[in-house]
Every structure is written in structure tokens, then in C-alpha cells.
Amino acid sequence: MKVNMFKRKRFTLKRKGFTILELIVVMAVILVLSSFLVPKFNGYREKALKVKAIDTGRQIYTAAFVSRMESTDVYSEDSIKDAAKELVGIENITVANSGKDNIDINYIVDKKEYTLEVKDDSYAIKEKSGSQIYPTIAT
């Protein structure tokens, strides 16, 4: 039996961890996949701002209705402002066209102006541009 003394042993290096190229490829894939989700998140943000404006309008309507009940069934600008401040915590509202059954209340949510139009026992919320956001109108 012949033994080759000059036979080289092959040393295999064991890799530990990932190479920088593999990490860059994984990060690129994650960035591409996350870029598909960004438009969805923007849509959800707009929807949340709209819901916040509607909720604030409902709270102001409740405060206005409470002030009407306390002041002999007449909407009064001062009593509405006081009730809104006390019940809702909103100070920057303006009241226009106050009367027995109709009133317009302007308020600001997230730097956008909205109008709460109260007529009889119903109400509508409109953006400054005039488009109605609550109740939604079927087209």
C-alpha cells in the first residue's frame, strides 16, 4: 500500500453569519415590499382624519343641543361656546346664523375648517370647500 505523503489536505472554511451582499439583497427586498404598503397607509391616515372631524362635529352638536335645552329651546352663541368648552374642551369655534331651530358652527380639526349645520333636529358636517362629509350622500 502506497501512501502519498505529499497529498494536501483540503481545509474547508466554515462560514459564520451572512455576507454583506446577502444582507444588502434582503434589505432591498424588504424595501421593495414595504413600498407597496405606503399608499395604503396614506389612505388610512386620510380616513382617520375624516373620522376625527366627524367625531368632533358630533360632540359639538351634543354640546349645542345641551345648551339649547338649558336655554329655553333657543340656540345661543354664548351658551354653545360655554357648553363646547365645558363638555368637549374645544375653544376655537365660531357660531353663525343662530336661531331657534337652525345654526351653523365652524370649527377646526387638524388645521382644516369644518362647518356643522344644524337644522331642526338633524345635522350635517361639511368641509370648508362645501363638500358634505357626514352624513354621506350616495352618488
Automatic annotation (TrEMBL):
Key words, A-Z: Membrane, Transmembrane, Transmembrane helix
Name of a matching Pfam family: N_methyl
Segments crossing the lipid bilayer: 20-38
Gene3D superfamilies per the UniProt record, alphabetical: Glycoprotein, Type 4 Pilin
Membrane as UniProt keyword: yes
Entry-linked InterPro entries: N_methyl_site, Pilin-like
UniProt name for this protein: Type II secretion system protein
Protein source organism: Clostridium brassicae
